Give the backbone structure.
Amino acid sequence: MNTQRKTGGGSGRKNRTNRAWVARHLDDPYVKLAQKHGYRSRAAFKLLEIDRRDALLRRGMTIVDLGSAPGAWSQVLRERLARPGSQAGIDGRIVAVDLLPMDPIPDVEFLQGDIREAETLERLESMLGAAPVDLVISDMAPNLSGIAAADAARMSDLAELAIDFAVRHLKDEGALLVKCFHGSGYSQIVEAFRRHFAEVQVRKPEASRSASAETYLLGRRPRRVRPSAPDAAATDGAGQQRATRLP
């Protein structure tokens, strides 16, 4: 009888929490904007804001979208790569990957699979062929368990996977944008970016909820060989040191 009361109370609290989340979600201005503009989620505005600041997207690019479902970022990519005027299609290429299914988006090549598995990675690399990539974006996040150490490890694994893929496939002037979370393991992800990119920047779009620990790391110009020290500097052709900007 006590167990039933406790269970019922917990269920009630959970239901109240769910109702509160739904209410906040429906009142969210970015949710309303996403519905107005036909985006599949509010995440579209995070990428749009980062692109306005950093000019990441332009026609002619080859872009890989990791963790693409439900497809809001791929929608933005297609808009940015669309040919001008009445011309059909895109100028460039978009390859999207996710463990979950994603409804088709015109001109976006979709691969369903777990990017952590060698088979999916091989299929993705086969799709890309020998063509180098201009930009890799990753909105991947693990299913959170509530255990901080375990969740941080899963997030770090996904970030490192994106870094490894990007370093191997990006052009010399290419870039990687990855979602991560402040907290346990965050500094290690930043250090991994510093080891592998000549320039590293932190971005917190306004469309990312203020209460969320979510943030984005942007790495430019991948290093092909890991430096001996995990600093954030690179040298240019004249041997001058070029410091990473990390606001």
Remarks:
- The helical segments are 2-27, 29-37, 43-54, 72-81, 118-128, 148-169, 186-196.
- DSSP finds seven helices and nine strands in the chain.
- The mean pLDDT is 84.
